[in-house]
Amino acid sequence: TDIEDPPGFVDKTEFLLKEWITIYHTQSRDLIKSFSLFVSKMNLYGILKGDEPLIRFFRHATQYCIDLTYRSLNDPNANQTIAKTKIFQWIDAYVRLIALLVKHSGESGHSATKLNLLNKVLGIVVGLLLQDQEVHGTAFQQLAYHRIFIMLFLELSAPDAVLENISLSIITAFCHTFHILRPSIAPGFCYSWLELISHRVFIGRILAMIPQQKGWSMYSQLLINLFKYLAPFLRNAELAKPVQHLYKGTLRVLLVLLHDFPEFLCDYHFGFCDVIPPNCIQMRNLILSAYPRNMRLPDPFTPNLKVDMLNEITTAPKIFTNYAAAIQPANFKKELDSYLKLRAPVTFLSDLRGNLQISNEPGSRYNIHLMNALVLYVGTQAIQHIRSKNLAPNMTTIVHSAHMDIFQNLAVDLDNEGRYLFLNAIANQLRYPNSHTHYFSCAILYLFVEANSEAIQEQITRVLLERLIVNRPHPWGLLITFIELIKNPAYKFWDHDFVHCAPEIEKLFESVAKSCM
Amino acid sequence: PLQKEHQIQFQMMEAAYYHMPTPTESERLRTYLHRQPVPTPPHYPQQ
Amino acid sequence: MVNNQFGMVGLLTFIRAAESDPNLVTLAMGQDLTALGLNLNSIDNLYPTFGGPFADSSARPQDIDYNVPPEYLINVSIREKLSQLTLKKYKDDLLFYLFYTNVGDFMQLAAAAELHNRDWRYHTEEKVWITRVPGMTSYEKNGTTERGTYYYFDVQNWRRVLKEFQVDTTKLDKCPNLNAIGSGQP
Predict the structure, then answer these.
(1) Could you say which of C65, C99, C109 has the minimum Cβ distance to residue B27?
(2) Which of A235, A313, A373, A435 is the most exposed place for a label (fewest CB within 10 A)?
(3) Per the record's keyword annotation, is Transport included, yes or no (chain C) (predicted)?
């Protein structure tokens, strides 16, 4: 940007841009013919002579649109609706030019030129947005950028043979752009960002139309960007209005995903729950409640439901997050693997807490990501271990193993905060009928029945109950685990003081029990 | 309490809250095509 | 018992706080997700009509822009070929529709003229259409003002509403002179 513009370049750009806007609005019927005439004029002006003038043209043209937007929106006499219409008439025309240039650039079979151009334009808009946010601060206006992104995406998503060929690359370019503009980087753009990534055409493309679900991992990354941004604001008990609004919008998007793409939430649940604060119980429940559409869930309230007779519990759920890689540092992973293999040295168990604790600051003592990854990794290893002995996981086969050593050690050795996070990591696996749900359900019940202190039992109850008293939805695995806990006399659930510690708590248990029994 | 970085992010979010995008801003403009445009009295609806 | 927020006492605190200030614990108690404007019982997918994260309802068919083949967009080429309208045949409702949706167009004037013929009057300051209530005679005249009960057309709710008015008749619009505009429409 520090290279001086050639003399008159900005005027040329402005002239061409205005010319195109006029063409767009007056010759809509045979726009393509006018477009080719216009391109030859661009060529005449030297704009298409190479990358550098073209980039310069786009930067000045985009800047022109943005300046127009600020002028119009900040004009106290202008009617806002009319101002926006005028801005959109301008921007939409400019975006159509970009789309036509992308579509017609390079040889029709070669997509590289087209995608290069698209990425250049997106890069310019991103650069201008971030600069603008820096300059204007809280006076930043997102409107122009919002309009450019959505209209460009709609233009490039129109049914068209050339564009269809490069649709995956187009969506990748936009995902990349939205990732760069994620709310923690561009907080002034956060509402537009959520509007863009949840636009029905964008969702339709990335989650439904791209074959072999190739868009899913990119979309999961965008959701993780959103959760990470929200997390610090959701830790507070009281949500400020702007946070509440963004949170509510996020719930709406998750509901659409739960309804239309439950498998997507199933496959990426671990990564999502890993960045959602533990106190966001309903939002986390919403993700954990997803189950594959072709699956019929047995009614969890069925008396004498024989969970271990369900054939789904032999199937491991897909998990597209590489949680094993999250177990750091490497030597800790090595020690873990050797302990799981050899069930020695015992010192591994006593060092466990030291690996998990990162500070003494209450509320942020532990490395939650490591805790979540460790729990899931140990659990999946346990299932494999039991299977290797031609057994199926149940309340007897899960005991007396290196895996259960680790869980029992965590239950005993961690303080209240650590234990709460540990139990949450287990409860995050109580989902739809699958081998993880079944194993972790057994594991948490086993920890309850074998607990050597009531505090462990109390916290197990707390973690399960707080997930049940929140508004729906509730994950299937959570329900069946809690029902088993309060119905099976082996757990002597009703004998514990914490069940009767206050009238409200007692009332809660009775109402849950009534609905279960 | 929020870290410094998050406080700044919150201020930006809060400012953005007052320029909330509306669903129509994500939809194409509808071009209203006159059949026979004529000047109408200013006190008639103009929009 | 566990004496901090990670045990039952912690949960109890939430529950009690929820009773006194629901806003305080929206995250822990959650909200009724069926009240977020999404038809969660829908057999069809929601995303094709999703109105956006900040919309309280799904997008209506008229809000959604469908990709239509350009050759379908013929309104530019056929607008001179449309058949003439005989507004006399239409009810008030349709006349109001034409008046409010054909802004800046001859059709707006034509609808106004027809409404004027049917004893509706457009108040130039209030910018509403009013008419006397049929059969009602108790209108007090006093120079250029007239007081009584009228119908006015409430465009927001799209219906006629009875209301007491004191009308300055000089503010009532004259009937548009369509011939003067010289376009030959009805």
Answers:
(1) C65
(2) A235
(3) no
Average pLDDT, chain A: 93
Model confidence band, residue B23 (pLDDT cutoffs 50, 70, 90)? confident
Length, in residues, of chain B: 47
CA distances from A50 to A47, A56, A307, A496 (A): 7, 10, 67, 77
| CA distance to partner chain C, nearest, from residue A334 (Å) | 32
Backbone dihedral region of A259: left (phi > 0), alpha (psi from -120 to 50 degrees) or beta? alpha
Q: Which residues of B touch A229 (CB under 8 A)?
A: 9
SS3 for A262?
Answer: helix
Task: Give me the phi and psi of C119, to 5 degrees please.
Answer: 70, 15
What residues of A are in contact with residue C37 (Cβ under 8 Å)? 252
Strands C128-132 and C140-142: unpaired
DSSP lists the bridge partners of residue A7 as none
As given in the structure block, the two tokens for residue A37 are 């005439």
Token code pair at residue B13: 């979010």
DSSP string covering A186-229, please?
A: -GGGHHHHHHHHT-HHHHIIIIIISGGGTTHHHHHHHHHHHHHH
Kind of pairing, strands C140-142 and C145-154?
A: antiparallel
User: Where does the pLDDT of residue A517 fall: very low under 50, low under 70, confident under 90, or very high at 90 and above?
Assistant: low
Distance CA(A284)–CA(B9), nearest Å, equals 23
Whether this prediction's pTM lies above 0.90 is answered by: no
C33 to A255: CB separation less than 8 angstroms, yes or no: yes
Distance from CA of C109 to the nearest CA of A (A): 23
Burial class of residue C113 (count of CB atoms within 10 Å of its CB; 0-12, 13-18, 19+): middle
Sequence-distant (≥ 6) Cβ neighbours of residue A513 within 8 angstroms: A486
Could you count the other beta carbons within 10 Å of the beta carbon of residue A154? 20
What digits encode the pLDDT tens for the residues A230-268? 999 998 767 889 999 999 999 999 999 999 999 999 999
Separation of alpha carbons A189 and A244, rounded Å: 16
**B–C CB contacts, 8 A cutoff, strictly below:** 67
What string of DSSP letters covers C137-163? --PEEETTEEEEEEEEEETTTTEEEEE
Query: For A116, which DSSP code?
Result: H
Closest chain A residue to the Cα of B1, Cα to Cα: A236
List A residues 6-35 in contact with C (Cβ-Cβ < 8 A): 28-29
* A-B contacts (CB, under 8 Å): 86
Q: Which residues contact A396 (CB under 8 A, 6 or more apart)?
A: none
Q: How many residues are present in chain C?
A: 186
3-state secondary structure of C166: strand
- In angstroms, the CA A280 to CA A267 distance is 20
What is the tens place of the pLDDT at every residue in C28-73?
Answer: 678 899 999 999 999 999 999 999 999 999 998 888 888 788 788 7
